[in-house]
Design a protein that fits this description.
globular, signal, TAT_signal, mainly alpha, Hemerythrin domain-containing protein
């Protein structure tokens, strides 16, 4: 419950907003954030604003967790430990739907063209584009091979090679984007373009995955981590 002081402040602010239009325009401009401030004061919450680079980087977090599932599968293949190959299939489906068809499309449609137009980091962008295409092909191969990998030794061998090449490429790929490309995005777009880009990302995410699309993908990956045995983060802590 808000305190008496908060309620008094709330009442005072509402009185200001309801006053006749004798307040000068600059004064009204100063009140433009009153609604947000009152909401934060009463509820203790502040609307989350995610910048375009932050949005893309947290999507890389989803990718990195899928890579961890892939690596857990590789360890099981290496030790001849039986497990359901559907876990690999479901991981590849997340890569296809969320990374290839959404995240990378966002980069290709909104981010890369800005750098190309500005003539900056064009060699890096060209390499990233080639790797996007390669990643889609490898993901299709993983989806094709995974269902038969339990019983077909040749399919399993090819699947292992495909997963290894995927992990090997995407670790440095995402790292270069996070540390070299995304931090420079503000240098090649206007502030209006920057804000509009974030809105475009959110709109497309909602179209493809519904409300809280990112959170839904994280939940799907977490379920796969649980099933393949890597959900407990503490298991990765070195023991002495």
């Amino acid at each position: 419950m808000p305190s008496k002081r908060q309620l008094l402040l709330l009442g005072g602010s509402l009185a200001v907003l309801a006053a006749p239009a004798v307040i000068a325009t600059p004064a009204l401009a100063q009140q433009s954030g009153v609604g947000e401030k009152l909401k934060e004061m009463v509820t203790g919450k502040k609307d989350e604003e995610v910048t375009p680079p932050e949005d893309l980087m947290r999507e890389h977090g989803v990718l990195d967790r899928v890579l961890l599932v892939y690596e857990a599968g590789l360890r099981k293949f290496s030790s001849n430990e039986d497990f359901d190959p559907a876990l690999i299939t479901q991981s590849a489906e997340i890569v296809r739907d969320f990374i290839n068809n959404y995240h990378e499309k966002s980069e290709e449609e909104h981010v890369f063209p800005r750098f190309k137009k500005a003539g900056k980091m064009t060699d890096l962008v060209d390499t990233l584009l080639r790797q996007h295409e390669a990643g889609r092909m490898v993901t299709n191969t993983i989806l094709k091979l995974a269902p038969s990998s339990r019983s077909d030794a040749d399919a399993r061998k090819q699947l292992v090679g495909s997963i290894q090449s995927f992990v090997t490429m995407y670790r440095p790929h995402a790292a270069r984007e996070d540390t070299d490309l995304f931090p420079k995005l503000k240098d090649v777009v206007s502030s209006n373009e920057y804000d509009a880009m974030g809105e475009d990302f959110e709109k497309k995410e909602h179209e493809l995955f519904g409300e809280d699309g990112f959170e839904k993908m994280v939940a799907r990956v977490a379920q796969l981590e649980q099933q393949i045995g890597i959900h407990d983060l503490d298991q990765f802590t070195p023991r002495q």
